[in-house]
Amino acid sequence: MEVLVSMFLISVGLMAVVSLFSSNLVRVINSRNQTIAGLLAQEGAELVRNIRDNNVAAGLGSFDVNLPSESKTDCIIDMGNVVMNDDRCDRSLIQEKLYYSPLSSKNYYIHSSAGGKETKFKRKIDIAYSGTGDARAMTVTSIVAWGETFPSVSDCNFANRCAYVETTLTKWKEN
Q1: β-sheet bridge partners, residue 142
Q2: Distance, CA of 119 to CA of 112 (rounded, Å)
Q3: Angle at alpha carbon of residue 112, lines to 111 and 116, rounded to 5°
Q4: DSSP, residue by residue, the chain
Q5: Are the beta carbons of 96 and 77 closer than 8 angstroms?
Q6: Cα separation of 85 and 69, whole Å?
Q7: Is the per-residue pLDDT at 36 higher than 70?
Q8: Proportion of the chain above pLDDT 70, given as a percent
C-alpha cells in the first residue's frame, strides 16, 4: 500500500514538472517569434530608409526613385525597391512572404541563410506622405505577422501574433 501511494505521489509530481516544461516551451517559442517579427518589422523600415538615403547619395530627391509617388498601403519590399511598380501596392491581401534563400523568382527581399524555405512570417509596408515641398515627410509603417490574419496597426500586439515599427522619414540634403 505504501508503495502504491508513493508511486502515485511521484507520478503526480512528474506530471506537474512535465506540464511546467511544456508551458514554458510554448512561452519561449512565442517570445522567439515576437523577437523575430520585431526585427523583421525594423528591417522593413530600414530598407525604406536605405532607399531614401541611396537616392540622396545619387544626387536625386529623397523620395524620387523606387518609392511610390503617393501614399500607399500593403506594399512589399526588396533590397532595391519598395514597390517595383505602383501596382504592387493597394491590392487586396498582398503581403510579402519572407523566405530564406539567395533570390526568389518573385523578387521578394529574402534572407540567404537557409536555402529557399518559406517562413511563417509575412510583412507589409504602409507609406503615408504628409506636407509639401521641402517639408514633405513620409511615415513608414512596417508590419510583420505570423498568424492566420494580418491585423491592423491598432490591433497589432503579441496576442494577435503581430509586431510593427513606425518611423517618419524627411527630405534631407536637398537644395
Answers
A1: 125, 165
A2: 13
A3: 85
A4: -HHHHHHHHHHHHHHHHHHHHHHHHHHHHHHHHHHHHHHHHHHHHHHHHHHHHHHHHTTS-TTSSSS-SS-EEEE---SS-SSTTGGGSSSTT--EEEEESS--TT----BSSSSSEEEEEEEEEEEEEES-GGG-EEEEEEEEE-SSS---GGG-STTTTEEEEEEEEE--S--
A5: yes
A6: 10
A7: yes
A8: 75
